[in-house]
Design brief:
alpha/beta, Nucleotidyltransferase, domain 5, 6-stranded mixed sheet, 5-stranded mixed sheet, 16 helices
């Protein structure tokens, strides 16, 4: 079956064009991503701006051309944090309807479940699946932290700390002022400590991270984005701290030219790394493994798993 699966987040829009069956995805035709920044200034205004809506429209028009060429049997689109929080999200949904794309807004809990399924559905290693896995999904507006074993969720929390949200709240420019960085770190530490205390009671055997923060950082380490190398790349807290020091002391031009960080992520990557490192440090987790899968893969998984239930 041919499926187009869209993940419409606060910072980036992704479109997976793939063939799949009840056992998993059998072939990926295209895996598209565009930086849209739908959630820009949303933390201050509670509305999706005209500029953001226009960027979303252009991106979805581009995706629609690719979808039509692919000619899928099913088109599925999930919208996450920005659409949940905005008072004018109906304007965003109308853009989708006008293009023949029905956009479903999902809760933080469903986003967590979808992310987990996206990473592990069709996973071939039974030994790894039997372990307790902690999955960290750092988005633009929120971060989902999921504990699971095999295809079962043991716990999941969605926290309103995302890379875009934190950057807009705490950072005024680059290089970052030491006082601003400390306030950012303190805020993240408080949120993680208060909302993720259950991790200590059920420590995982393995920690994985998905979305733009870990994949962009792995690409910077590797000197370019090669999916086969980015997937499975390992970071320690010490490696993450080194990048916090590098990024916070650089200007945006240096971040993009010297390290190859895309302009749409250059200003928010630091906040994402602070979230990831804080989670590892608070719970004394020695490393995190990068996964290139996520919500868009979970959109496909949900479709087939819900069919089985019916």
């Amino acid at each position: 079956m041919r499926i187009a699966a869209l993940d419409l987040g606060s910072n980036s829009f992704l479109c997976l064009l793939a063939e799949a069956n009840h056992q998993g995805i059998t072939r990926v035709h295209k895996d598209l991503v565009e930086i849209v920044r739908l959630g820009k200034d949303l933390n201050k205004t509670q509305v999706i701006s005209r500029e953001s809506l226009q960027r979303a429209k252009v991106c979805l028009e581009n995706f629609k051309k690719e979808i039509d060429l692919f000619n899928p049997d099913k088109v599925l689109a999930y919208a996450t944090s920005a659409a949940r929080d905005a008072t004018n999200s109906e304007e965003f949904f109308k853009i989708g309807r006008d293009l023949g794309i029905h956009i479903e807004i999902i809760s933080g809990d469903k986003e967590a479940l979808t992310t987990y399924r996206g990473v592990f559905w069709g996973f071939s290693s039974e030994s790894k699946m039997s372990e307790k896995n902690l999955l960290i999904d750092i988005g633009g507006g929120s971060t989902e932290v999921i504990l699971g074993q095999e295809m079962n969720l043991l716990n999941a929390v969605s926290i309103d700390i995302g890379a875009v949200r934190l950057t807009e709240k705490w950072l005024t420019g680059y290089p970052v002022k030491a006082t601003e960085l400390q306030l950012l770190k303190s805020h993240v530490l408080e949120e993680v400590s208060n909302q993720l205390s259950w991790v200590k009671q059920s420590p995982p055997q393995r920690v994985l991270a998905v979305a733009g923060t870990p994949t962009t950082l792995a690409a910077a380490e590797l000197g370019g984005y090669v999916p086969e190398k980015v997937d499975g790349y390992v970071f320690t807290p010490e490696m993450l701290e080194r990048w916090i020091e590098i990024l916070s002391s650089s200007n945006l031009e240096e971040i993009t030219t010297k390290f190859g960080i895309p302009r749409g992520r250059a200003d928010i990557l630091l906040s994402g790394i602070v979230i990831l490192k804080t989670i590892l440090e608070v719970f004394k987790l020695p490393e995190v493994v990068v996964s290139t899968r996520g919500v868009r893969y979970g959109v496909v998984a949900n479709f087939f798993l819900e069919q089985i239930r019916e």
